[in-house]
Queue: 3 jobs
Job 1
Amino acid sequence: MLNFDFYNPTRILFGKGRIADLPKVVPAGARVLVLYGGGSIKANGVYDEVMAALSGFAVQEFAGIEPNPTYETLMQAVEQVRREKLDFLLAVGGGSVIDGTKFVAAAACFEGDPAAILDKRGRNITDALPFGSVLTLPATGSEMNEGSVVTRKSIKAKTAFSSPLVFPKFSVLDPTKTYTLPLRQVGNGVVDAFAHIMEQYMTYPVNAPVQDRFAEGLLLTLIEEGPKVLANPEDYDVRANIMWCATLALNGLIGAGVPQDWATHMVGHELTALFGLDHAQTLAIVLPNMLRVRKESKRAKLLQYASRVWNITEGNEDARIEQAIDRTQAFFEQMGVKTRLADYQLGADSIDAVLKHLESHRMVSLGEQRDVTLEVSRKVLELAV
Amino acid sequence: MLNFDFYNPTRILFGKGRIADLPKVVPAGARVLVLYGGGSIKANGVYDEVMAALSGFAVQEFAGIEPNPTYETLMQAVEQVRREKLDFLLAVGGGSVIDGTKFVAAAACFEGDPAAILDKRGRNITDALPFGSVLTLPATGSEMNEGSVVTRKSIKAKTAFSSPLVFPKFSVLDPTKTYTLPLRQVGNGVVDAFAHIMEQYMTYPVNAPVQDRFAEGLLLTLIEEGPKVLANPEDYDVRANIMWCATLALNGLIGAGVPQDWATHMVGHELTALFGLDHAQTLAIVLPNMLRVRKESKRAKLLQYASRVWNITEGNEDARIEQAIDRTQAFFEQMGVKTRLADYQLGADSIDAVLKHLESHRMVSLGEQRDVTLEVSRKVLELAV
C-alpha cells in the first residue's frame, strides 16, 4: 500500500424526505444563494421542496448553470454573491451545478482575477464561502469531494481544480429525486461512476486488498443495478444503490493508498471541450480502448478484474482480458451510452484536433506510469473510430 | 437501504514515517498534553519520535491510561489539563488511550461532574478540546470515530458514549509502529475488528449491496492477513492492510444505511467489567454463540456470509450456516483468542452474574430486532461454557 492522506468532512444526509432537513444544516441566519441549472428542478418539484425548507432564510437564486459549467456563466454568480453580500451557497442539481458552485465559492473570496484559480488548479485558494448541495443526478461524486471541472469557453478548455476548502459542508442525497431523470442522464451517470472507479482501480497491484475489494464491490453493484434502473425507474433501492455507489466512487476512499490513472478523463475532457460530447460519452469512447492499448502495463489488474468483476475464469490470459474489456464496452452500450467516435459523427480527422489540444494542455505523459504519450493517446482514439 | 447520516471529519495520515508530519496537523502554538498507557511506546521508539516531532510545542504528558480506561484515572488527566491550561490533546497508543482521551477532551470542557457524560452517553457534550491520535494498535477503530468506552471502577460498569465533538482531528497510522506488538494484542485486534464488522453486517438484508460488499471485503482481508501477521510480524503490507481494515471496520461507513446489532458487544462488556477479560476475548466467546442462538432471524445474511466470505456452497442451509459459524470460531482460535468461558477459568456460575449486570444496565432487549432478551443472552452464554 502507498502512503496516503484521507480527509473528507462532507456530511451526507441520505434518503427519502431529507430535503426537509436543510434548516438543520444551513447555518442559522445565512443569506443563501441557491444555484441550479435548467428548469428540471422546477418540473420535478425539487425546487419547491428546497424553497419550502429554506423559508426561514434570506434566499436568492442563480439559474442557468450549464452542463460543463463555464467560467463565463459562473462569474455572473460571483458578481451576485458579492453585490448582495450572500454568505452561503446551495447547489441544487447534478455534478455540473455542484462543480460550478465550488468555483463560485472560491472565486467570491478570491483576490484578483478568479481565472487564476483555474490556471493554478486550485492551489492558490485560501478561502471559500461555505456551501452545501442537494444532489439530483448521481454521477460525478462532486457532492462529496474537493474537485471541480470548469470550462472556459474563450479558450475551449476544461480545467480541473481542487482544494480542501471546497468540500461541500453537506450534501442531501434523496434517491426519489432521481426518478424523473432522462434515461440519457441515468446512463451517463452510471458510466461516469464506473469510469471513476476504474481510474483508481485499474492500474497495477500494490497489495491493497481492501481498496481493490471496495472498488470491485462498487463496480459489481453498478453492473447489477444499472440495467435495473433503466427497466424500473421508480425502484427506490436501485436508485439508492446507484446514488451511493456514485458518491463512493469518487470521495477519495477507494483511491487512498493506490496508484491512479486518469488518462481516460484527460483525453475525454478534450473531446467535450472540442465537440461538446457529454462527459460520460467521452469516457465510454476512450476507456475500453485505453485498456486495450495499455493491456501489458495493466495486465495483472485486468486479470483480477476479469475474474472478480466479470467472473471470467476460462481461456488464456489474453482471451480473458479481451473478454473483460469487451464486456465493459457492452455494459456502456447497454446503459445507452455509445462507445465509438462515429456514433457521435466524429471521423478520424477529429483525432488530430484532440492531440493538438492535449499537447497544448501539456497532457503528454498521462497515466499511473506517466507513459501515456501523445502517440499512445492517438492509438487509443484510432481504435475508437 | 435505510435512511442515514454519514459524517466523519477525521484526517488520516497513513504510512511509514508519518509521525514526522505532526507539526503540520497540531495547531501552531498549541499547549499539548500527550496521553499514553504503559511503557510500550517508550520501548518501541514511538514516544521519542512523537516528542521529537513536537519539539516546537509546549508539551506535557500523562501516562498510565489502562486497558479499559477508567473514569478514575482519566479524571486525573482532566485535572492536569485544567490546571495547566492545556488546549490540545494527543493520544499515543491503542483504542483504550484514544477512548480515554475522548473522555478527557469532553470532560475538560464540561460544567458539573463529568460522570454525567457517561450517564447521558455523551448526549450532553456541548464542547470538547481538539485532539489527535498516533495509533499503535489496530483494533477498536476509535482513531476515526466519535465513540468511546470508559469504565467506572466504583460501580464495575463499562459505559459507551459518543458525540460528533469527539472525532479526532487527525490520526497518524504508521504500520511499522505495530511491528513490536505482543501477539496477544495483535490477535485481539483482528478479532475486535472482525466483530465490529459483523455487528453491522450480520443482521437482515435491506438491499444494500455496497455496504454488504464493503463489509465482506474487510472480513475477507482480515481472514487472509490475520494469520500472515502472526507468521511474519514485520511484513509491512500485511500490517498496513490490517490497520486500514480495523479503521474502516468502525468509522461509520459500513454501518450507514443498514441495521446494526451490537448485542455481542453489550454482553461482552459485562464479562470485561466483571472478570477483567480483554475486550476481544469477550467477543470471541460471545459472537459465535450469538450467531448460533439467533440463526433463524439472521438466516439470510448467514447464508450470504457462508457463501461470500467462507466460500461454503455445498450442503443444506443449516449445514452451511453451522459450518460458517464454526469457521468463524476457528479463525478466532487461529488468531490466538480462546472462545470458551472455561478457557478463562469461568464456569457456569459466571453466567448469573453477567445476566444480573445486563439487567441492572437495562440491556434486556438487544440486537437489531430488540429480541435479545436476558433469556437469549443466557442461552448464548450457556453455549459458551
Job 2
Amino acid sequence: MITTDTSADAALKAFFDRTADARLESYLELLRIPSVSALSEHAPDMVRAARWIVAELDRIGLEHAEVCETAGHPVVYADWLHAPDAPTILVYCHYDVQPVDPIDLWETAPFDPFVRDGRMVGRGAADDKGQLHMHLKAAEALLATRGKLPLNLRFVFEGEEESTSANLPGWLKSNRHRLAADAVIISDTGFFEGNIPAITTSLRGMLYTQIDVVGAPVDLHSGSFGGTVQNPANALARIITELKAADGTVRVPGFYDDVVAPTAEERYEISCLPFDEAAYQEIVGVPALVAGEPGYSLLECGAIRPTLDVNGIWGGFTGEGSKTIIPAHAHAKVSCRLVPDQDGDKLYVAFRDYVRSVAPKGVTVEVQNLGTAKALRTDPANPVSKAAARALKATFGVDPVFIRSGGSIPVAPLFESMLGLPVVMLGFTNPDDNAHAPNETMVLLNYETGLRTICRLWDDLGTMSSLEARMGGTTA
Amino acid sequence: MITTDTSADAALKAFFDRTADARLESYLELLRIPSVSALSEHAPDMVRAARWIVAELDRIGLEHAEVCETAGHPVVYADWLHAPDAPTILVYCHYDVQPVDPIDLWETAPFDPFVRDGRMVGRGAADDKGQLHMHLKAAEALLATRGKLPLNLRFVFEGEEESTSANLPGWLKSNRHRLAADAVIISDTGFFEGNIPAITTSLRGMLYTQIDVVGAPVDLHSGSFGGTVQNPANALARIITELKAADGTVRVPGFYDDVVAPTAEERYEISCLPFDEAAYQEIVGVPALVAGEPGYSLLECGAIRPTLDVNGIWGGFTGEGSKTIIPAHAHAKVSCRLVPDQDGDKLYVAFRDYVRSVAPKGVTVEVQNLGTAKALRTDPANPVSKAAARALKATFGVDPVFIRSGGSIPVAPLFESMLGLPVVMLGFTNPDDNAHAPNETMVLLNYETGLRTICRLWDDLGTMSSLEARMGGTTA
C-alpha cells in the first residue's frame, strides 16, 4: 500500500531515511510525559509536555513558539509565515491524553511506550500525540532540507481536548488577531475499518447529562420498607428505559425535529464503503451488532444519526455479597451524540422535562447539563480536502474514502463559527488504535507514511496562491 | 405507658433499681466491641464479643456457657435447666451488627455509644445487642434475687445474622441433641409505629440475585461505537424495568402462584392497626409513599405481599464530570421479599429465565443466586405468644398489637423446620431505631421496661407445666 512518493524531493526522502531512529526516539520521548489533562495531579506534566513541544518547535525553526497560559492547561502556539504568495494553514492537534483507567487492563505501563509488531504502544501513541508529532517531523524535514516551508503554517496544540476544551474557545477568541488563515487542518481522526486511508467529513455533537434520583435521606431496610416506598434505582431504570423505544428510537419529544435528513447521495456513499460487518463485530468483541435505529444501516447509525447512551450508572450497595437496602439515591450519566442541526442546549431542556414527566411517583429527580457540543459537517469538495485526498493517494497508493465520524471534537465547529475558517479533518490512526482504552497503539507505517502525506499536502497547497478566495476563508 | 408490674416481686424491683447504673455501663461495654460480622478485619472483635457474653453468662449463673466455634464466627450457647416441672424456652438473639457505612452520616462514632434524650445511641444499640443484653440482665436479676429461674432456659446467640447466617443451620443440626425445648423466643424484632408494643407474627422470606450484563470486553468510545452496539447499562435498565409492571406488579411468570392469599380476618386486623401514614412518611423522609401493588394497602404491601427491589446498581463511568464511554458491563443486585408459600429457589429459576427472555440483543446476561430464605408465619394463639402478650400488657400498660414484619430472619424458619419448635417473635425496639442505618438508637424505656417484661414472661411460663403438650413442640 505504501508508495511514499518522494520522487519530487530526493533530499526529503534521504532526510527521512537518515533520521528514522532519532524520530522514533523523539516520539517515545513525547509519549513518556504523562500529560493526562483530566487529573490535576498531572498539571506539572502538562506544562512539561507543552515546554517539550515548544523546545522542539524552536529547534526545528518555527517562530513565535510559545507556551500560552490559560485558566487551565496551556495552549502551544507557533507559526512560520514566510511564504507571502502561498496560503496559510492552521494545524490543530492536542497534546493531552485520556486517563489510563482501567490500569489493570494494560499489558504494559501506559507511559513507558515501546514498539511491538510494527506499532507504537502507549497512551497517546495515536490520540493525539502521535499525530501532533507527525506535524512536527514534517515541518522539521521540510525546513531542514530546504530552509523554508512551501506555505504558511500556524500550529495550535491544545492541552484540554480530552477534558471538554474548557479554555480553548476563550483562547481562540482573544488570539483571533494572530490566527488569520485560509483553512484549518485537524489531525485527530483516523482511517476507516481495514486501515483504509480516509478523510473525515463530519463529527457528531454532544449533550452530556446526569440524572439524579433521590428517595429517602438514607438507605432504607428493604424488608421494613419494601412495598411502601418507591425504589430510586428501580425508578432510574424505568426513566432510562422510557428514554428509548424498544427499537432504539429516542422518545424525548422533539429529539429528531432539527435533524437534517441524510441525502440519497450521502447514504449511497456510505453504502459503498468497504465495510466487513463480521470482522468489525469480532474486533469490537460483542455477541451481536445492534443498529441504533430502524431504517438505517449500522454505519449510518454509528455516524450520521443521533444516539442516546448511558455512560455510567450507580446507586446503593455494589460490594460483594448481599445487602438488603433500598438505595437512598441512584444516578446515571446519559449522553447523546448529535447531528446537524440538533442543538444540545435546546435538547437539554426537552430531555430534562421528559425525564421529569416519566419519573415515577415517590422520588425526586434532577437532571444536570454537563456539557454540549455542536456537530460539524465539512465539504469534501473544498480545495484543501481535495488536496489532502491527492496527498493520501500519492503516499498510501489508494484513493482515500470520505467517512463520517461518530465522535465529537468539541472545538472543531468553533474554527468555523468563531474564526470563519473551513475545516478539513485529516487523521492517520488505525481504527483499532484503542484510543481512550487500554493498550493504545499507532501503526508505525501509518505514522511514517502519514508524515510524508503531510509534506506532500503542504507542497500541493503551496502552489495555490488563490486558495483564500477559493475557500471562502477570512484572513482578517 | 410504663407500669412495670413488679408487685409480685419487690426484691426484683429493688434489684433493678439498685443496679441501674451498672446495667447501663455493661450495655455500653458490649456496644463498644465492633462486632461487624460482614468484615473479616473484625473477626477478632467477634471472638472478643462472644467471650464477653460467655463471661457474663458465667458470672450471672448460667451453665455450660461456651464460645462454640463454627466455620465462621462463633455461636454462644448457655443453659439453665433446673426447673424440672417447668417448660424449656430457647432464646435466640445475635451479637453481630451491621457495617457502619455510610460512616459520614453518623453524628458520632458508631462504637463509642452514649445516652442522649433517653436513648442509647450506637451501632447495635437496638439490632440486636441491646435485646441480647436485656435477656442477660433479666436472667441476672432473677438468679440474683431468687437463686433460681422459674423455667428452663437455653440461650443461642448468633454471630452471623447480619451476614446470611451461613453457619447457624449446620450448628443447629449438629447440636440438636442439646437444644431440646418447648418453644423458641426470638428477640430481634420491634414495636409498631408510634412505639406501640407488638408481637411479630410473620416474617418475609428472600431471594437475592445479581444480574450481570456484558457487552464488549472493554469500555467503548461512545462516539465511535454509539449506534452500532447494544449498551449494557441501557440493557440492564430495560431488564429491570421489565421485572415489574408500572403499577408495581412483579412480571416474573409464576411469581404469585404459591402466594397464600391473606384471609379477610388478617386484612381486617392489619386495617385496625393504628397507622398514621403522614407521620410515617415524615419519618421515612420520602416525597410520597408508594404502595407496592394495586389492591393492597401500604401496610399489606410492606409486610404480607412479596416485593422486588434493586439493592444496588453499577456500571461504566461514575466519577465527577463526563466520560464518553459505552460501559463494557453493568450489574444490579435485585432481591425479592417472599411470603408463604413462595419458594426462593424455585423462583430463582423463573427469575433467571425471565431475565434472559427480556434481555435485549447484543449483550450477554447472567443471573446469580446469592441466597434465599423462607418466610415464616407464627400462631398468635399459641400459649407462649399469649403469655408474651400478657407480659407486655402488664409491664407496658397497653395491649400489644400483632404485626407482620416485612423483614427476614433467615434462621427463624429453621427452628420450626429443623428443630420442630414453635417460634414467638418478641422484640422491644422502637420503630425509628435506624437499624442497619447511621445513628442507630434504642429507647431506654423500651429496654428497661422490656427486661421487666421478660422476667414477667418467664414467671408466667414457669407455671405452665404442660406447656410442651399444649405447644406441640418436641423435647427429643
Job 3
Amino acid sequence: MVIEKKLQEMGLELPELPAPSGLYVPARRVGNLIYIAGQTPDAHGKRQFVGVVGEDLSIEDGKRSAQVSALNILAVLKAELGDLDKVKQFVQIISYVRCSKGFGDHPAVIDGASELFKNLYGEAGLAARLAIGANELPGGSATEIMAVVEVEG
Amino acid sequence: MVIEKKLQEMGLELPELPAPSGLYVPARRVGNLIYIAGQTPDAHGKRQFVGVVGEDLSIEDGKRSAQVSALNILAVLKAELGDLDKVKQFVQIISYVRCSKGFGDHPAVIDGASELFKNLYGEAGLAARLAIGANELPGGSATEIMAVVEVEG
Amino acid sequence: MVIEKKLQEMGLELPELPAPSGLYVPARRVGNLIYIAGQTPDAHGKRQFVGVVGEDLSIEDGKRSAQVSALNILAVLKAELGDLDKVKQFVQIISYVRCSKGFGDHPAVIDGASELFKNLYGEAGLAARLAIGANELPGGSATEIMAVVEVEG
C-alpha cells in the first residue's frame, strides 16, 4: 500500500466513494483500462468548491478544487482495484474549469490534480490532458475531471 | 433482435443514420470498442431540440433532447453492428447540455439518454459518464452526446 | 516519408513539439492507440489564433486555427512514432471552438483540422468526432483539439 501511505504522509485522505448523481457508474473496465466518470470536488458528502474561477474563486482555490476532484478519482480507483499500487499509468485526462469570461489559466488550475498524481506516481501520474473552460458544471462545481487509467493485468 | 423489439414496445423508433455535418465518420471500431461521434438531437432529417436549457427549454425538454441524441447513438450502433443485441456494455459517455448561466442540473438532463440505455441493456447500459454545460452546441442543439461502447467479439 | 512529403507539397510544415503548458505529457501510448493531449493553435513558440470565433474571428480564421491545432497533433505523432506513415487511422477527435453567444458552426471550424487529416490520410484521416463550443480556452485560444489515433503495431 505504498501509494496510500504517501497520501497519508501528505496529510490527505481518500474521500468516500461518491454516490453517482445520476444514471451512471463510477468506472468501467475494459481490458487493463479503467474509464472513470467525471469527478466534481466532493468530500464528506458535500461539494467543497462551488463558484466561478476568475470571479468568486481564485486560481489557488481552483487548484484545491482540482485536487479534491483528483482525490475522488483515486477513491474510484481504490474501489475498483482494492489497491492503488496497481495503477500503471494515467493515460488521458479530460478536465473542465467553470470560469469567468476572459479566464485562460485552465492548465494552472488543473495542475492541482496533476501535481497530486505526479507526487504519488511520478512520471506515470501524468496523462495526455485536456484542460479547458466550461460555462457551467453540475451543481456549480468549480472543476470536473474525467480520466482513463491503465492498470496492472 | 431483442433490443429493437424493446424499443418498439417503448413506442420508440431508430432515426435514420444522421448524415455527418462535417468531415468525420459516425463511428470508428478498434478491437471490440466502438467510438461514436457526438450526436445532436436529430430525427426525420431535422434538429428536434434547439434552445438553451434553463432559458428556452425546461429540464424535461432537455431530457427528451438527450433521449433523441441517445437514439442516434443507437442508430449508429445498428449501422455498425447490424444488430443492437451485440452491444456488451456502454463504457464511456461524454455529454453536454447547452445551458443558461447558473444552470447546474446537467446530470438530470443527460439521464434522459442513460435511462433509455438502462431500460434497454440493464446495468450494462450505464457508463462512466461526464455530463456538463456548454455555452454553445452545433446549430443551437440542446444536447450533444458522444459514447464509447464495447461490443461482442 | 510519404505523409511528410505531402505536407511539404501543401506548403505546410510541422511545428516544433509544443512544450506542455502544465503537468501533462504530449501523448500516452496503450497498445496501438496513441492518446494525444489537447492542442492549441501554436507555431514558432507563439499562439497563432487568440480570440472568439463569431466575434473577433471569422469561421475562416477558426478553420485556420483548427489547422494549426491539427499540425501540432501531427508534431506530437511524429515525436512519438518517428514517422507519420505509421498512422493507421484517426479514431476519436474531441474538439472545441471558443465562440460567441449564438454561434453554431463548430463543425465547419473544426473541418479545418479534419480536412488536413483527410488530405494526408484519406478516409483513415476522419474520426468519430465531437466539435462544440467552449466559453473559454487556455490563453484565449480559438480552438483546442484532442485526438486518439491508431498506429501500426
